[in-house]
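User: I'm putting together a teaching handout on how multi-component assemblies are represented. Below are the sequence lines for each component of a complex, exactly as they appear in our records. Could you produce the 3D structure of the whole assembly as structure tokens, so the students can see both representations side by side? Please keep the chain order the same as the input.
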Amino acid sequence: MVTSPVSRGALTLLPCLAVLAWASPALGHVEGGQAAGLLSGLSHPVSGFDHILAMVAVGLWGAQLGAPALWLLPVAFPMAMAFGGMLALVGLPLPGVEVGIAASAVVLGAMVLSEARPRLSIALVLVGAFALFHGHAHGTELPGGQSGLAYSIGFVVATGCLHGVGIAIGLLHRWPRGRTALRLAGGLIAASGLLFLWRALS
Amino acid sequence: MKVRILALPVLGVGVLASPAQAHLVTTGLGPFYDGIGHLAVSPTDLLALVALALLAGLGGPSRGRTMVATLPATWLVGGLVGLLATAEILLPLVIAIALLCLGVLVVVDAPVSRSMTMLVAAAAGLLFGGMNGSALAAAGSGPLGLVGIVAGATVGLFLLSAVAASARAPWQRIAMRVAGSWIAAIAILMVGWSFAGQLGLLLQAGQ
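Assistant: Of course. Below is the structure of the complete assembly, with chains in the same order as your input.
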């Protein structure tokens, strides 16, 4: 095949033009890493056993207490947790975060175990206080290059879903054997919390 | 040889070119659909739409009608004003506070009057429309993109508020209020992201 200098030049330029065409795709939005941020946020709460136990315990306790605590506790928790996350983001320290998280599993598990029925305001304050620790510890663990907003969405949604799991399990409360099973689950959560507490203090 | 010399800088430009900071999704179907795509990948816009739809739904069909009549018009007006902006207006803290207010209104199931619904919808429409308009202007897009965004927002609001308004069972209302708490929680974290690490810097400066 005979090629002229012009066609050879065109052949040389062709890949260059192709690179130019593909090199700079316009970004969908100025804030990158949204999908990764969302996935990180969704997976983070379910990656820590301490967080899972406390979230499920909130749902279980709410189911034992019945309405309106059944839904007020899962409403209060994410908002207080987000407030804790905000404190961490602005750089305000919260002492004893790991101890607080472990204590949340111990106390909430004990509440489920004993089927405690304090006043609603006390239950809300208790859950809200523990939520601060969870938010402070986990709400800011955003991997680099990911969207903080998308991470926050994923984190809050995953936490809410864990409460939902707790409430769904708490439906067992309708049956006598289910009540016993729930109290047993509370005991297991409290025992796990003691293990976390021992680790946090050692 | 000359062609190869010319090709080198072209290749270099191609490899080193920084990505364009366009704020619109390029669907390849034109600016109208780019606008719809932009709305679909803008979490703050979507959160605001969901919160407004829940608020409208909790208030019943009449509040829903007020919301649907007010929001698209004000979103369009805000967008047209935003299109006149010379630079993109980014107000993350204002957006976060607006979302927080909307989320809290949903959580407490506030009995919002018709005029209040109109006021909330107008404020939200002007704010989010203004931001969209300025983003479009910065990306070099025109009013057609804005029409796409407003059309997407209108359809989304119609559908979501209709679903919310048709919810009658107590547990459905509770689920909506829980969703409101999630939006409020996300907004609180957004406030945190707006000030991320700044308190530490302030403390360092004070020492």
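A couple of points students might notice: Chain B touches chain A through 51 residues (CB under 8 Å). The mean pLDDT of chain B is 82.
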